[in-house]
Automatic annotation (TrEMBL):
Belongs to the HyuE racemase family. SUPFAM superfamilies: Aspartate/glutamate racemase. Pfam families: Asp_Glu_race (PF01177). InterPro entries: Asp/Glu/hydantoin_racemase, Asp/Glu_race, Hydantoin_racemase-like, Iso_Racemase_Enz_sf. This is Aspartate/glutamate racemase family protein.
Length: 256
């Protein structure tokens, strides 16, 4: 990712308030999939995000947020880190159920649907998902929605209204952190809460730090034989081979 690509991700912080002792550092993964549209991509993204954040605690960070609704790498990172690790995917679905009884997910393309199915399978929440509505616009993991607002925002609004009026959604979830630029537009026009996944994960990380909460070591046991050096070697080779997968989503880590 270029500096400009990362700045578009950093815009998720706009309008959010944090304590004076909290600052954020955004990082791109070193190698990964160009998009998150198949299980091939999910596997690569898990490894990519794991590698990007596996040494965060040693580097002095107090929490890690993964910037993709696939929650790629979250479980693996929790197995090696004692600091809070959050992904926006499952967190958004669970938060939606504190705001309403059923939710719908807005997606750029139907090819993302396996990503949501995976999370819904693991949470056992298919009965709470009213629908996944896709506008069938090719996603852009680097440029996001910049320059496409006039075309994309009305399509997202129309899909959201269908989800509310036809599917029975009481809460809307943006289906990707790459869609964050549409949040203010939709929140001002829709009659139900609209969850912006990335900022939600930041606030959950902040709350976990303040409350001194960590993931369960019973649920996420440490590896018996860590191979982080092997992981680094693998990614050194990937970078040397041409920086594969420049479009993969970055991880972010709030630091106190």
């Amino acid at each position: 990712m270029s500096v400009d690509n990362l700045r578009l991700r950093e815009q998720q912080l706009v309008g959010l308030q944090f304590g004076d002792d909290i600052r954020f550092e955004y990082r791109a993964v070193r190698a990964g999939p160009l998009n998150y549209a198949s299980h091939h991509d999910f596997a690569l993204a898990d490894v990519a995000n794991f590698e990007a954040g596996c040494r965060a605690q040693d580097e002095g960070f107090d929490a890690v947020c993964i910037d993709t609704m696939s929650d790629s790498g979250v479980a693996a990172l929790r197995s090696v880190l004692d600091i809070p690790v959050f992904g926006p995917g499952k967190a958004s679905m669970l938060m939606a159920l504190t705001l309403g009884d059923r939710f719908s997910i807005l997606a750029m393309a139907s090819r993302w649907k396996p990503l949501y199915k995976k999370a819904l399978d693991e949470l056992g929440l298919h009965h709470k998902c009213a629908s996944v509505r896709a506008i069938e616009v090719p996603p852009d993991n680097q440029g996001l929605l910049s320059g496409k607002e006039d075309d994309v925002f009305p399509l997202l609004e129309a899909a959201a209204r269908q989800a509310i009026e036809s599917d029975g959604a009481e809460v809307i979830i943006l289906g990707s952190t790459t869609m964050h630029q549409s949040h203010a537009y939709l929140a001002a026009r829709l009659p139900v809460p609209v969850i912006n996944p990335g900022p939600l994960s930041y606030k959950l990380a902040e709350a976990a730090m303040a409350l001194k909460l960590r993931h369960s070591r019973v649920g996420y046991p440490r590896p018996m034989h860590p191979r982080l050096d092997m992981l680094r070697t693998m990614f050194d080779a990937a970078e040397a081979a041409g920086r594969l997968g420049q479009g993969a989503a970055p991880g972010q880590a709030p630091r106190r």
